[in-house]
Every structure is written in structure tokens, then in C-alpha cells.
């Protein structure tokens, strides 16, 4: 049966793994190299295998559980197909894929997904495309070397772990830069768009990353920082409530009083009086 959107240059290969491979190795079910139009789509509630996709050219949309990703050229996708998933091409797309299972596939997926999600940029990482190509070359032969296949799958997983570690470091530096920007400009009328533009990330994506890293949204972090600075000024200065509101970036005294009270259970004036009694 022909798959909708799969063009004539596409190839697929199948393999029945040995009992030993299923007990001791990463083992293959099938693999292929596809060229697809923008009509290609696969949607499943459960398919008891894991999936690698290497996008050589084009663009795909990936849904896994409640997550949505866009995978561009030279990206890699790792999916646990035991859970609901969907992947579809958004334009003419060339990609290589393998379905596999065995060994510690689930443990590796859970570990990597928690750190990085499903989609990996392969910029500056050329080993994974080579490993995928070698797996497909083996699948073309009459006799599949199951041990070699297992080693190549494991090496791909190892490279994904390296990418996720590098991404963690990059994310940490990005969040540090955003926090530095907030703390340097908290007394100005800055917005989410301003902060996201500073670190060159879309506001939606930046908010998700910031929350994941700090447990605060950028807006929550900014307001907390403003309130904490206001606390310091209420204790250490003779500035009026109006002046403190202005110096801490609140656009009105009423907004300052309402926000301060929601954070401390005291209006600013009462908070100052409380501090002076200590």
C-alpha cells in the first residue's frame, strides 16, 4: 500500500531480528530513506517501537503528547512511539528514518527527553548523519549485522546526549543573560518582548525556557525583583512612596501599592513602619 505523499525516489527496508538481538541489543524493525511532498503525515496513538528521523532537507512538524516542535533541515528527531505522536512534512522533505527497540531504549529516551525534548539541531555534529547512513547501508545488504546495528544506534544515543549537554550549557548562559538584562533595566518600562529580543529568542519560546530554568515566568521574576528593591529602599532611604514606585519601575503608585501588598501582605507605608519597629 502506497503512503500518501511518499515520492518515487523513496526506499524502505525491513528486518526480522533474532531472539538474541531482542534480549541483548538495540534491534531494528525497519528503516528507510524518504522523499515526501507536503502531503505526508503519520499519526498514531501507540506504535510499540522507537523512532529516529534525520531531516536532510525540508521541514517537518512533530507532535509528541502535548508538545509541538518544528524540525528544519539538518535536525534529528527521537520519538517514543509507544505514546501518541504525529509527524508531517510542511514542504517537500528528504529524511532518513529507523524504527528500533531493545536494550535501554526507554531509559535513554526518558533521560534525553527530560533534558532536551524530541528535536536536536545537528549543526556542528556530523557523526549522527554518518551513523544513520551506515545503518541504511547495512539494511540494504542481504545479511544484517545485528551487533554492528546495535553499536551504531548506541553511538547515536551517545551523540544526542552530548548535544543535550551542550544545549544545557547554552540555555544556562541565555537565562543568565536575560536575568542580567532584567536586573539592569528593572526600573524602566521593559516588556517580555524587550527581554526576549535581548537574548534573540521568540517571546513564547523564551517564556517556556525561562520558566523551566527558574520556576518563574520572566514577568514574575521582573516584578519580584522590583518588589525586593522597593523593600530595600523602604528600609534604607527616606524616599516617598511615589519616588520609590518610580525608581523601581512601576508605572503608577496605585500599581506599586497593589503589587507590593500582594507580595508582602502589607502596603508599602505599613511595611516601612513595621521595619522601623524592628
From TrEMBL:
GO molecular function (one): sequence-specific DNA binding
Protein name as catalogued: AraC family transcriptional regulator
Keyword terms, alphabetized: DNA-binding, Transcription, Transcription regulation
Alphabetized Gene3D superfamilies for the sequence: Homeodomain-like (1.10.10.60)
Cross-referenced PANTHER family: ARAC-FAMILY TRANSCRIPTIONAL REGULATOR, HTH-TYPE TRANSCRIPTIONAL REGULATOR EXSA
The organism's taxonomic lineage, starting at the top: Bacteria, Bacillati, Bacillota, Bacilli, Bacillales
Keyword Transcription in annotation: yes
Keyword Transcription applies: yes
Coiled coil segments of this chain: none
HTH araC/xylS-type domain span: 176-274
Amino acid at each position: 500500500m502506497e503512503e500518501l505523499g511518499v515520492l518515487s525516489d523513496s526506499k524502505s527496508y525491513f528486518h526480522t531480528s533474532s531472539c538474541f538481538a531482542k534480549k541483548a541489543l538495540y534491534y531494528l524493525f525497519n528503516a528507510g530513506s524518504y522523499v515526501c511532498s507536503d502531503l505526508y503525515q503519520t499519526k498514531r496513538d501507540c506504535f510499540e517501537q522507537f523512532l529516529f528521523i534525520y531531516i536532510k532537507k525540508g521541514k517537518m512538524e512533530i507532535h509528541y503528547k502535548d508538545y509541538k516542535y518544528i524540525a528544519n533541515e539538518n535536525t534529528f528527531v527521537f520519538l517514543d512511539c509507544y505514546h501518541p505522536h504525529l509527524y508531517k512534512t510542511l514542504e517537500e522533505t528528504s529524511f532518513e528514518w529507523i524504527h528500533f527497540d531493545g536494550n535501554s531504549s526507554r531509559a535513554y529516551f526518558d533521560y534525553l527527553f527530560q533534558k532536551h525534548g524530541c528535536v536536536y539541531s545537528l549543526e556542528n555534529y556530523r557523526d549522527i548523519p554518518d551513523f544513520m547512513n551506515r545503518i541504511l547501508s547495512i539494511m540494504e545488504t542481504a545479511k544484517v549485522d545485528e551487533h554492528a546495528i546495535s553499536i551504531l544506534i548506541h553511538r547515536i544515543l551517545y551523540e544526542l546526549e552530548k548535544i543535550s549537554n551542550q544545549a544545557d550549557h547554552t540555555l544556562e548562559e541565555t537565562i543568565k543573560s536575560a536575568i542580567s538584562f532584567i536586573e539592569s533595566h528593572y526600573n524602566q518600562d521593559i516588556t517580555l518582548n524587550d527581554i526576549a529580543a535581548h537574548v534573540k529568542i521568540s517571546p513564547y519560546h523564551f517564556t517556556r525556557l525561562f520558566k523551566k530554568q527558574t520556576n518563574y515566568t520572566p514577568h514574575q521574576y521582573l516584578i519580584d525583583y522590583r518588589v525586593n528593591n522597593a523593600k530595600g529602599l523602604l528600609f534604607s532611604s527616606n524616599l516617598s512612596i511615589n519616588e520609590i514606585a518610580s525608581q523601581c519601575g512601576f508605572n503608577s503608585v496605585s500599581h506599586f501599592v497593589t503589587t507590593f501588598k500582594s507580595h508582602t501582605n502589607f502596603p508599602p507605608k505599613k511595611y516601612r513602619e513595621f521595619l522601623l519597629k524592628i
